[in-house]
Design brief:
Blueprint: H1 4-7, H2 13-26, H3 29-53, H4 63-88, H5 95-112, H6 118-136, H7 138-147, H8 149-169, H9 176-207, E1 210-211, E2 214-215, H10 220-227
Antiparallel strand pairs: 1-2
Helix pairs in contact: 2-3, 2-9, 3-4, 4-5, 4-6, 4-9, 5-6, 7-8, 8-9
Length: about 230
């Protein structure tokens, strides 16, 4: 059953595929950025979980390595969640990179500070930062809900499932319940990222249809979107 902690990482192929498709279709550099971050986060998570999930004779990480992978996994996954919020809500360049780096730096400091209640601090910090972005980008949220109801519903269902499974798993540690719900969390959180990426792609295609890898503005909404300053 421990193998589920490793095999459920395959669901990450869903958002990764959307990033690659978005890049090939729209030459969107933020999609490449997200692809790279996802590959690193999934790699760190696999190395972290392999220490407990593989049979004893097949474990290739030492206890010292495990501590390092645990730190990298926590940092990469926590920062990826917020960067995914920026990406899904179509925050523009260069604000996308500036905001991502600023928030991720705080995440790294908290992860390195052993005397802090890191899980509680990071949870509230990421929730507050994400809420601020949602408020700023409320128009994008409204467009998703109005124009892509089915995808928005799937996004919400997977997001709620990710939250519930995470809260259950955190009360346990590598027992049957933890393995079951943490594996479910992998599926839900990667699916949430995939649907968010798909929503972004479909809205971008609606506002700025790409023709031979180039964007064209074809609606009043898209022209107003271009004229808006800030993020």
């Amino acid at each position: 059953m421990n193998q589920w902690l490793l095999t459920t990482h395959s669901v990450a192929l869903f958002p990764i595929g959307i990033f690659i498709f978005s890049w090939k279709t729209r030459k969107d550099t933020t999609s490449i950025f997200m692809l790279i971050k996802f590959l690193y986060a999934v790699t760190f998570s696999l190395l972290y979980h392999s220490h407990h999930s593989l049979p004893e004779g097949e474990v290739f990480t030492s206890d010292y390595d495990y501590t390092n992978w645990a730190l990298l996994d926590s940092y990469a996954c926590s920062s990826l969640i917020f960067t995914m919020v920026l990406y899904g809500l179509r925050v523009r360049e260069p604000q996308f990179y500036i905001t991502s780096f600023t928030v991720e730096s705080v995440v790294l400091v908290v992860n390195l500070w052993n005397n802090l209640n890191r899980e509680l601090i990071l949870t509230w910090y990421l929730c507050v930062c994400s809420f601020i972005i949602v408020v700023i980008k409320w128009k994008t949220v409204w467009r998703y809900l109005y124009m892509f109801k089915c995808l928005s519903f799937l996004f919400v269902v997977c997001g709620v499932g990710a939250i519930i499974s995470y809260l259950i798993a955190r009360e346990h540690w590598y027992d049957a319940v933890y393995i079951q719900y943490h594996s479910l969390w992998h599926c839900c959180v990667f699916s949430t990222a995939g649907f968010a990426s798909l929503l972004r792609y479909k809205l971008d295609q609606h506002l700025y249809p790409s023709v031979s890898g180039r964007e064209q503005i074809t609606s009043i909404d898209s022209m107003q979107d271009v004229e808006m300053s800030g993020i």
